[in-house]
Amino acid sequence: MALETTDIQNRIIEKFADRVSDFRMEYDILTFEAAPEIAKEVIRYMKEDEVLRFNFLTDLCGVHYPDNDKEFQFAVVYLLHNWIDNVRVRIKSYIDADKVEIATVSDIFASANWMERETYDFYGIVFTGHPNMKRILNDNHMVVFPMRKEYPMEDSGRSDKDDRFFGRTTNNYQPK
């Protein structure tokens, strides 16, 4: 018998109650939110449960939502795959901008090691308990996290471009 999304949702709600929420389908993948303090527990449960059997961490990444309230400005997104039933699940954990950290899952899935380092390197999200939490791609001396949306897209002082040619003007420029 194939594993249905309702079975997954019911088992997770039964185990974690109101600490998991917002179950929905996004692009044919069951997605839900888990509080950051229990995200590791949820992932361990989903891997070790005899029915769920999510045995592969496909991806782990960070997201920055600068327009959200402080407690929802950062998120860690986990994508788990059950190879036996060929089912994928996405878990989102929102993190407070004042304390940008969450527990590592590298002791559950070894593949999380480099993914967590990359997420730290680009977003500054610290994975507590990680065995080697340091930059993996950028220079060790960098003091910024380049994927955060805190920086302007362009240098506003540039004088070598004319916005009219890029469709970024409000006047009705008509080329001759």
What does this structure look like?
The structure is a single chain. The protein is α/β, with parallel strands linked by helices and 176 residues long. The chain has one domain (5-149): NADH:ubiquinone oxidoreductase Nqo5 subunit (Beta Polymerase, domain 2). It contains three helices and seven strands.
What is the compact description of this entry?
The protein is α/β, with parallel strands linked by helices. The chain is built from three helices and seven strands. It has one domain (5-149): NADH:ubiquinone oxidoreductase Nqo5 subunit (Beta Polymerase, domain 2, 2-Layer Sandwich), CATH 3.30.460.
List the keywords:
single chain, alpha/beta, 5-stranded mixed β-sheet, two-stranded parallel ribbon, 3 helices, 19% helix, 26% strand
The strands making up the biggest β-sheet line up spatially as 1-2-5-4-3
Strands, total number: 7
Question: Which fold name is given in CATH as the topology?
Answer: Beta Polymerase, domain 2
Percentage of β-strand residues: 25-35%
How do the helices and strands follow one another from N- to C-terminus?
Answer: HEEHEEEEHE
Instruction: Provide the CATH superfamily.
Output: NADH:ubiquinone oxidoreductase Nqo5 subunit
According to CATH, what is the class? Answer: Alpha Beta
